[in-house]
């Protein structure tokens, strides 16, 4: 989505804003009452709806580890649920995911306290333990998604290398109340350049998914994590899985600040030189590849150069079939 001011003016104003190193929270601390033009966005043509509870499935991962026939049946049902979500909505929430319940509010509290410190006293929050637990959950999800594609459980992690290298990037977001929320967005419309993304959000909400031409709210469920399919998995699955566009709406005046922690699993380090394309077993005749193979660095460079303009980066690599 484009800003409502010219590109040159926007770049000048963005540089001046970045040079303050205080972020949007700095504007709030200064008592800003109007949204600066660099944050204005054109009206979205899609309507919004709050009928999300049926649209975004909630999946219980308790049946992931099967040890007997009854549990094996429950595991197959779990794979079927993940398959249905990945092929249609592209988003789902997971419970009984193995991340300790007490850790989730601590992570959100750390992000909130960091952003509410004076600008010159802020410092990063990161622990190896959080990264280890996030990678463990991603391994479970990739196993389920592999089975959902009819592949062996280790395919996406081991054969395709979706967790190779330092593949995890944390993004901690803090959205303060906005004086004119109708003029802007917390995060503009986009899909993720990842294999998959795992999100922890607080009770404020604001995440919306574009489904059937309408913006659908993703409800905040205590103890749940939001999972969405990324662009790389849509490409590798040859469009069986959907990397769905989403956004974050601005927080209205008087509401609490929105806090979230996103974990992006995407090619990084040496893995960026690897080529990713449709899985060979998924493009046997009569099925044809819908995308050309692309290195991680080529895809990510194009995504950054394109910017969040409301167009999917996948279209650039799509084959005419």
From TrEMBL:
| Protein name (database record) | Putative 2-oxoacid dependent dioxygenase
Tell me which SUPFAM superfamilies the record gives.
Clavaminate synthase-like
The record, for InterPro entries, names: DIOX_N, IPNS-like_FE2OG_OXY, IPNS-like_sf, Oxoglu/Fe-dep_dioxygenase_dom
Species of provenance = Zea mays
Q: Does the keyword rRNA processing apply?
A: no
What protein family does this chain belong to? Belongs to the iron/ascorbate-dependent oxidoreductase family.
Keywords of the record, alphabetical order, are: Dioxygenase, Iron, Metal-binding, Oxidoreductase
Key word DNA-binding present in the record?
A: no
Q: Mention one GO molecular function.
A: metal ion binding
Q: Which domain of life does this protein belong to?
A: Eukaryota
């Amino acid at each position: 989505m484009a800003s409502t001011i010219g590109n040159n003016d926007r770049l000048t104003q963005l540089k001046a804003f970045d040079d303050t190193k205080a972020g949007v929270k700095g504007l709030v601390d200064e008592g800003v009452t109007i949204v600066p033009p660099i944050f204005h966005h054109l009206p979205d043509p899609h309507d919004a709806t709050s009928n999300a509870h049926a649209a975004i499935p909630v999946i219980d991962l308790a049946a992931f580890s099967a040890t007997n026939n009854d549990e094996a049946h429950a595991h197959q049902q779990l794979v079927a649920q993940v398959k249905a979500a990945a092929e249609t909505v592209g988003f789902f929430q997971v419970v009984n995911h193995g991340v300790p319940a007490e850790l989730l509010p601590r992570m959100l509290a750390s992000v909130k306290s960091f952003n509410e410190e004076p600008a010159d006293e802020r410092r990063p929050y990161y622990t190896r333990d959080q990264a280890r637990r996030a990678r463990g959950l991603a391994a479970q999800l990739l196993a389920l998604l592999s089975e959902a594609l009819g592949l062996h459980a280790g395919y996406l992690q081991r054969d395709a290398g979706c967790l190779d290298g330092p593949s995890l990037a944390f993004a901690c977001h803090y959205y303060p109340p906005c004086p004119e929320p109708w003029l802007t967005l917390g995060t503009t419309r986009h899909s993720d350049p990842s294999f998959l993304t795992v999100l922890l959000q607080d009770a404020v909400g604001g995440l919306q998914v574009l489904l059937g031409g309408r913006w659908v709210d993703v409800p905040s469920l205590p103890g749940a994590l939001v999972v969405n399919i990324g662009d790389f998995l849509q490409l590798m699955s040859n469009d069986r899985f959907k990397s769905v566009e989403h956004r974050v709406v601005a927080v209205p005046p008087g509401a609490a600040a929105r806090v979230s922690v996103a974990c992006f699993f995407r090619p990084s380090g040496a893995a960026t030189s690897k080529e990713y394309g449709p899985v060979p077993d998924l493009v046997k005749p009569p099925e044809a590849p819908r995308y050309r193979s692309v290195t991680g660095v080529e895809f990510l460079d194009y995504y950054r150069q394109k910017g969040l303009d409301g167009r999917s980066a996948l279209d650039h690599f799509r084959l005419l079939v």
